[in-house]
Write a structure and sequence with these properties.
heterotrimer, A alpha/beta (240), B mainly alpha (299), C mainly alpha (344), B: 299 residues, mainly alpha, ABC transporter involved in vitamin B12 uptake, BtuC, 72% helix, globular, disordered C terminus, C: 344 residues, two-stranded antiparallel sheet, disordered N terminus, binds adenosine-5'-triphosphate
Chain lengths: 240, 299, 344
């Protein structure tokens, strides 16, 4: 049974079609990585899945039930939690208050404050600081913790690595790996191919709002993905 | 002696201004709307309680009726008028005429103010009124050689209680936390399950409830008319700015500074009380370095 | 106004604005050469009020529609203009037409230092801050010796002038002034400064990165808009032969400006013309009902902001444009659209 089933999703900004007929599915416990260059439509896809930007056409099923037009605040109550691009921490709330916002939907499940603090000990030390004063990596950890506290059926992660130092990225992906390994269903958007391949079971690559490659993560050839990134056709194989 | 008296009266008057300012700063803090109908709404509350008292209701019961009524009104105004106006912010039409855009909430609240002021004028005439309070209005407590009015003291007490309650609500409850989250980033709050439109309406309901209460106290202590709302708006605004944007306790301090400026100004020249208050406000504007950029609500 | 990267033809106006311009010219000729000879003196005086409203709306639109500043305190300058006119005409003995123009300059001269004060407030706080300033102006005016305290002043410069002559003079002068203000505003918006302001208005991000230039542009707009309000105040005092602090400094002037601009169409030159005519007509028609017309105006303004945010002119704009301030893109070739996509 798939947790998430998306078919023919199209999302527009005015005249611009940013996501153009994307279909995907994520099975229980699986991690799907969505890859693509800047402007490929990855964030737009996640925004549509989270209900932040309603699609022009297509359907989104959560555990088989349609949620295509359900507004964002109700969608998280149903179990789709988004870690948005740019993290969007509440700057005037303390770290702990930021995390508690994740408890707002009151969904039962394994994640509570203690579990998040265990996963991110640095965040625990910062619990009384205001969100606005944290470093980028700390904010990213808080954003992930906030989403986990909603105990989502599916966790959507948008470019965890954005603007962070490689060591910080590696640490964060250690945590993401723990999260996905523990059985959380996840959809990870990432430009950093190495990190994505560390956590993903399957990979789907977008270009210009369309799917150009779908493949299992294991044994995936870097060049194949790189070609798909930039729209070089991979059958027949590129001359490079 | 007279100066001391003016000082005490000024501080007490500050309580009334702070109570009036509470809702103004709450609405601004949560959704960045400056509600230009704030003053006339306070006057509306005064008229409503006047009518109820004239119908034979005891004053406390009138308050019990007016405050929840105003909360409901606040919820409805937010849902029906301010939310649609907010939806236009950042939605400027491309090319040619751009529409009200960012100015929409301000303009809507101004339209409401104009309509409501003149509606009250048609219904109640421009004559000044006062809510009868029996002995309360004239009762005084001896304090040394001074007599401190019971009503102003009561108003100050209510202001302190309301501010403390609102601050506690914002700091300690999960709804208060969600309200601060929405003020920070409505979209991110929606991602955590908060409905921003509903939360805005709850904030406005709370603001209107405090405003309704403030309006009744204004009506008990002051001769009011429909046009008095303009002054109420200006005084509340001045209290917020003088106190510095941020916490409601600052607003209380700002209200007291304004009250002091007015009573001491009136002591110097009986005609100049209001002017002195305005001038102190402008002086604060000049002195503050870098001007004043509005901040959002804080616990 | 997003401008495509590849644009085949750019025009200002077009046939629509030619037709519109013709209509405008006809209206002006009618107002100048026909109307004064066929309507009553009372009607002429009331038309003077219409011209003042056009000036008020046009200049408030300069502030809000182009400068993004909602001032609720423009009555400060209406009042300054009114008092200045009477002082200049009566105490100094300047000819009325000169006194009106000088009153406008005085308004500008006072607006400049005031801007440094009110510009410390942003957005909605600016709105109430300007209102406080207007109150201060009123209260101070009432305290200055020789300005008549709470009862105000009456104009005596016209004493001994024939009524017909006086009304006719005020009418033509007001008409000329209105045309000058509208054309002046149009030219200002077409100038480098104006186009810069339009760009700022349409692109907030660029606005914040331009800093100083933005502030200078906004200050210019504030001073010009306030001068306009002072001119209108002077006209009102000239036409009604006096001022009282309560009415010349009334916030209802600003209410009128806001209504005129919002209902007519904010951010266009034509909108305030339409709005002023509508406001004036409503005022004339509903006057017997007391202040009900203000209730109606308030409700209509709310309705327009929420339901037709571009105002009445916005409903027809695009088809006609009397004053082409922006550039319009003519027939865009299909491949230009493609080029734009690719460019992004
Ligand atoms: N709010 C918006 N309004 C208009 N166009 C937008 C908006 N957000 C994104 N776009 C456009 O939609 C397309 C897809 O953007 P999106 O942010 O989804 O890409 P992305 O794959 O997440 O890229 P990145 O790696 O840079 O985050 C881009 O062409 C972008 O310019
Ligand atoms: Mg993205």
């Amino acid at each position: 049974m798939n947790v998430l089933d998306v078919s023919g999703l199209a999302v527009r900004y005015g005249d611009l079609t940013a996501v153009d007929g994307v279909s995907l599915s994520v099975a229980e416990g699986e991690t799907l990585a969505v890859l693509g260059a800047n402007g490929a439509g990855k964030s737009t896809l996640l925004a549509a899945l989270a209900g932040m930007h309603l699609p022009a056409s297509g359907t989104v099923l959560l555990d088989g039930a349609p949620v295509t037009r359900v507004p964002a605040h109700q969608r998280v109550r149903r179990g789709i939690a988004l870690v948005p691009e740019g993290r969007r921490i509440f700057g005037s709330l303390t770290v702990e208050e930021n995390l508690l916002m994740g408890r707002y939907p009151k969904r039962p499940g394994p994640w509570d404050l203690r579990a998040v603090y265990d996963m991110f000990p640095l965040v625990a030390e910062m619990r009384d600081r205001r969100g606005g004063v944290l470093s980028g990596g700390q904010q990213q950890a808080v954003a992930i913790g906030r989403a986990l506290l909603a105990n989502p059926r599916v966790l959507l992660l948008d470019e965890v690595s954005l603007g962070l130092a490689p060591t910080v990225v590696a640490q964060l992906y250690d945590a993401v790996r723990q999260i996905t390994a523990s059985g959380t269903t996840a959809l990870v958007v990432e430009q950093d191919l190495d990190q994505a391949l560390r956590v993903a079971d399957r990979v789907q690559c977008l270009l210009g709002g369309r799917t150009v490659l779908e493949a299992p993560a294991a044994g995936l050839d870097r060049d194949t993905v790189a070609d798909a990134y930039f729209g070089v056709s991979h059958h027949p194989p590129s001359p490079r | 002696m007279d100066w001391l008296n003016a000082g005490v009266q000024g501080v007490l008057l500050g309580g009334q201004y702070a109570l009036l300012a509470c809702g103004l700063s709450l609405i601004f803090g949560v959704m960045r709307i400056v509600n230009l109908a704030h003053g006339v709404l306070a006057v509306l509350a005064a008229y409503l309680s006047l009518v109820l008292v004239q119908q034979g209701l005891p004053l406390w019961l009138a308050i019990v009726v007016v405050v929840p009524l105003f909360a409901a009104l606040g919820y409805a105004v937010q849902r029906g008028l301010f939310n649609p106006a907010l939806a236009q912010v950042g939605q400027d039409a491309a090319g040619g005429a751009r529409g009200a855009g960012e100015l929409a909430p301000l303009l809507v609240s101004f339209g409401v103010a104009v309509a409501l002021t003149n509606l009250l004028q048609e219904v109640f005439s421009a004559d000044t009124r006062k809510i009868p309070t029996g002995d309360l209005a004239s009762a005084g407590l001896p304090l040394g050689d001074l007599s401190v009015g019971v009503l102003p003291l009561l108003t100050l007490g209510v202001a302190v209680a309301v501010i403390a309650a609102v601050q506690l609500f914002l700091a300690r409850t999960s709804t208060g936390r969600a309200m601060r989250a929405v003020a920070d980033d409505a979209g991110a709050a929606a991602m955590t399950g908060v409905d921003p439109k509903h939360m805005y309406a709850v904030a406005t309901a709370l603001a209107f409830a405090t405003l309704g209460l403030a309006g009744v106290f204004v009506g008990m202590s002051t001769q009011f008319s429909p046009g008095y709302g303009d002054l109420v708006l200006l005084f509340a605004f001045e209290a917020v700015i003088i106190g510095g944007l941020g916490s409601l306790w600052g607003t209380l301090a700002g209200g007291m500074v304004l009250g002091l400026a007015q009573t001491i100004g009136a002591q110097i020249d009986p005609q100049s009380g209001v002017l002195a208050g305005h001038l102190v406000f402008l002086a604060v504007l000049v002195v503050r370095p870098g001007g004043l950029m509005p901040r959002s609500v804080q616990a | 106004m997003s401008r495509p990267a590849a644009v085949p033809t750019i025009t200002r106006g077009g046939r629509g604005s030619l037709v519109g311009g013709g209509v405008m010219l006809l209206v002006v000729v009618l107002l100048a050469a026909v109307v004064p000879y066929v309507v009553t003196l009372g009607a002429l005086s009331s038309l003077v009020m219409l011209f003042a409203l056009v000036i008020l709306g046009t200049t408030w639109n300069l502030l809000a529609g182009y400068g993004g500043m909602v001032s609720v305190g423009q009555q400060a300058y209406v009042g300054v203009g009114g008092y200045a006119l009477i002082q200049l005409a009566d105490a100094v003995g300047a000819p009325p037409w000169l006194a009106v123009l000088a009153a406008g300059l005085i308004g500008a001269a006072i607006a400049l230092p005031t801007s440094y004060l009110v510009f410390r407030l942003a957005g909605g706080y600016f709105a109430i801050g300007t209102w406080v300033v207007a109150e201060v102006f009123r209260l101070v005016t009432m305290r200055i010796d020789g300005l008549g305290g709470g009862t105000g002043l009456s104009l005596s410069a016209f004493r001994g002038t024939d009524r017909v002559e006086r009304v006719a003079f005020v009418y033509w002068f007001a008409l000329a002034l209105m045309i000058a203000v509208v054309l002046g505003t149009y030219l200002l918006m077409r100038s480098r400064v104006g186009l810069g302001l339009t760009a700022i208005r349409d692109d907030r991000v660029a606005a914040s990165s331009l800093g100083v230039a933005v502030d200078r542009g906004r200050r210019l707009v504030y001073v010009a808009g306030s001068a306009g309000a002072a001119l209108a105040g002077a006209l009102v005092a000239l036409s009604t032969l006096g001022v009282t602090p309560g009415s010349i400094y009334s916030v209802s002037w600003t209410a009128a400006m806001i209504f005129i601009v919002v209902v007519g169409g904010i951010g266009t030159i034509e909108g305030p013309l339409v709005g002023a005519v509508l406001y004036w007509a409503l005022q004339q028609a509903l006057a017997p009902l007391g202040t009900w017309y203000l209730v109606v105006l308030g409700v209509v303004a709310v309705g327009v902001v929420l339901l037709a945010p571009r105002g009445l002119w916005g409903l027809v704009a695009g088809r006609y444009q009397l004053f082409p301030t922006g550039y319009r893109v003519g027939a865009v070739a299909p491949d230009a659209t493609v080029a734009r996509r690719a460019g992004e």
